[in-house]
Sequence to fold (630 residues):
Amino acid sequence: MTAAVSLITLLIILGSSIAVAAGMGLTGVLLNQFYSSMPMTRILGELTWSTTSNFILTAIPFYIMFGEILLRSGIAERMYSSLMQWLSWLPGGLMHSNIGACALFGSVSGSSVATAATIGVVAMGEIDKHKYNEPLFLGTLAAGGTLGILIPPSINMIIYGVMTDTSVPKLYLAGFLPGFILTVLFSLTVLIACIWKPHWGGNKIETSWEERIRTLPDLLPPLVLLAIVIGSIFYGVATATEAAAVGIVGALAITAWRGRLSLAMLRDVCEATVRTTAMVVAILIGAFFLNVIIQTIGLTQQLSRLITAYQLTPVQVLMAVIALYLILGTFMEELSMMISTIPITTPLMVQAGYDSVWYGILIVLLIQTAMISPPFGINLFVIQGIRGRGKLTDVEKGSAPFVIALLIMIAMICIWPEIVMWAPRMFG
Amino acid sequence: MQRLQAIAAEISRVGAIVGGAMLLIASIVICIDITLRYTISKTLGGADELSGYALAIASAWGLSTAVLTRSHIRIDTVYVRVKSRVRAALDLLSLAVLIFFFSLVTYYAWGVFKQSWTSDSHSLSEIQMPLIVPQGLWVAGLGFFVMVCVLLLARGLTAFLAGDFERLFALIGSKSAVAEAQEEVINVEKAFAQQREQERKP
Fold:
């Protein structure tokens, strides 16, 4: 009963467009009034202080700042033209470069929106130049962009790790192989589409080995940053949070080397970082508070009892959770969807016998799917925003094949959990 | 009131830039710390603690920038499907709840600060930071956020009573995801334009 009332209260409050941060807080206050004799609101001060001054969480602004600097460092454009030389011979031409560039940029960026926006702006001019099938080209950018949160670093993995007490380095390790496989799956999707309909693949692009070799150094900055950030985590030189700080300094060095460091640029970086951080932290404060209330009123135990009462098998629980996220993902903003649901779904999944690292990767894949499934998919809007012409349905249509690729990926990690788990077991 | 909001916007902008600068400095200090740790096995001590404070202060002061730029996330599935009068009412309600919850947070945060003040608490580390310094800046940011929200609510209410919904939406309306995405794109395009500008310079 409590469970039903709580969920309905939360749904009504969030559904009436109350700011998610305050809405979760209000739900917490109300549930506390009704179901608990302890005045838990008193902990709000201490909880907010200990949460926001938590060193692990500084990874959030650090990775956001890292991305904001990289955006202004000029590496994206050069990287793209180099990948154009290397990948455009495949049927589908530049669409493979789009996916490759997204994967590479995703390996230094922790955000999908930033990845889609950055590579999107760089690539958009090429549609008309080479006469590509427009929807499919747009789809590669929207879908490729989602790789930003699967390939480490990942802001979503940090939030998941902190909220569910899961090791962030393990999540990072676990993300690599699925990230690689998904990149290949995306490329295969383009390949199949362009073998089926060759005229979708656009004009041939002139490339030469000479150019390939000449532009090779342009691929280095992201690879070096990746090596520094991820390498320092895996060799135990730095924690995931410290590695983000190393990334910032590395990105600053590259920006300075390219002659693009200026006070105005730093000011923009600071302002943008703090605005995004505050928005995320506000939601986290609401969520942590609600989480405490949920625990004190025993809501999770109630839900688990429900599962036992209905004798649900682990597979049924898994299916229910996947279905829940696929449905929520069509209309809910992705970040709030994740933060407002994982305090409830993670304990359920862990109790059903799933590893929390594995579940974290599943959640990320489900969020990626949500980002490109209509009607609400933030990456669809980003790509349509860059394009600035035609209808949103083109982007939706072009992304549909990649939604299928994502569903195949989800099925793969469900059937072979080792895809996710071998790396954290090997190195963790 | 418009002037008041302009002043508030300027203060939060400065707050955001200073907060961001603190985070930037924190990241540099951490790098120095790691380098020292691995070369001469010494640490400066307290780098992680200081970045924690930077996060608390920066996020408290960033809250007001976020509300002034209408960046706090709201779920607008229902919102976009109702008449503008109802939508305006929902905007006011959202702001009211934001004020309610963060007044509670600020009230109890003040308690935390007062406690540190009366007991003269220092952090349990080698730098022994007097906690009232970071907590003072933190609670001030939270308090400022609540005041900005109250100001926005007052302006929103006046617009509502005057029946000027367009003005209300511009002040406190929920930004559609499309507008949100558009802003991200503008941000990227602006950054790229800046780069080209820099490259043209000799």
Summary: Chain B touches chain A through 81 residues (CB under 8 Å). Chain B has a mean pLDDT of 89. The two ends of chain B are 46 Å apart (CA to CA).
